[in-house]
Amino acid sequence: MTIPQLRASEHLHDVKYEIRGTLSRRAEQLEREGHEIIKLNIGNPGAFGFRMPDTMRVAIIENLHQADPYSHQKGIFPAREAVVMQAQNRDVMDVTADDVFIGNGVSELIMLAMRALLDPQDEVLVPSPDYPLWTASVVIHGAKAVHYPCRQERGFVPDPAEVEAMVTDRTRAIVVINPNNPTGAVYPREVLEALAAIAERHHLVFCADEIYDEMLYDGAEFVASAPIAKRSLCLTFGGLSKVYRACGLRVGWLMFSGERSHARDYIQAVELLASLRLCSNVPGQYAVQTALGGHQSIFDLTRPGGRLHSTRAALLDAVRRSRWLSVVAPRGAMYAFVRVNAERLPGGVEGFKDHEFALDLLERRHVLVAPGSSFNVPYRDHFRVTLLPDAELMADVFARIESLLDEYAAK
Length: 411
Description:
By secondary structure, this protein is an alpha/beta fold. The strands form 3 sheets. A 7-stranded mixed beta sheet has the order 2-8-7-6-5-3-4, sandwiched between helices. The protein has a 4-stranded antiparallel beta sheet with strand order 9-10-13-12. The protein folds into 2 domains: 10-50 and 300-410, Alpha-Beta Complex (Aspartate Aminotransferase, domain 1); 54-293, Aspartate Aminotransferase, domain 2 (3-Layer(aba) Sandwich), CATH 3.40.640.10. Helix 4 (105-117) packs parallel to helix 5 and helix 4 (105-117) crosses helix 8 (264-276). It has 15 helices and 13 strands.
């Protein structure tokens, strides 16, 4: 008897996540063959020796005795109240613990927020380049991600006029990722104010992905969206994975602020979805209050002399000395979005394919990067690396990249 082919759901047809896709699977095969692979495709601090602050670990251990039961679907009160206190320190005074949801990382909360919001054929304005989960969370529900350009010549900061020109009667929300993944751009206040004004004029939900809020370099200033987007429904996403180096805890939060009187049905729908998954990881939630209220050790890593700052400096130095590369210096987050100046190579820009280059780099130099096209851009001459390795390893990585491009040029 022939068994019919089991096909994946059509909902997944346009869902892409190359950061953990075919290249990552090939890297695993190479490792099984005995090769050591330098994996710069994922922002995973623990894989590079970073650890969460000890005080967070102690908070979890001391509360394990009360972490056996399910928590409330929104999360434990001390964690939600800590998010409120952080918001109040940022001049957001109209929120309470009832406006905060704790989730299994920001990723889960993005999915919940989009599932509760979108119907087929709805549209969401998403930055390009974006973190691809945002596009996936839109298209998986039959809606359309409309990508507004964040151009390299503008430092990857969007032009609000271009964004507003893309609004239609089907647009439901606008997504802002600040500090930005994958580019490291940090948005100025005036740009955020203009984007918030667009949301207000067109009655859009303002989605602010701020998971990298405290990860800044060389005097860059983070401006929270919630105090600016007061006359729209504002969703702020944050978590412990990046700034607090605790990816494995899977703890994120979603805070509703701004105008909420018209959005009761929507917020109740988010709570319904949160209830269906019962609750998020309870032990990890006990680290939130300590994390947000204690010493912000991320500043020790991002200031001059800190490990992240030194690695960023090593990357910028390598790119400056390269014959083939250029980059907009990241001002925040833990990534660099590097351009290959393919016009200098045989075949030119049209002949250079970022995915093929990334595969060559993996096979021949044992370095795994994320092709730029993974981040929903129309061009094929960029790649993203994380800033998590130490400076010495980063210099070695870029020496390998340079040698591969030298080989391309010699053909």
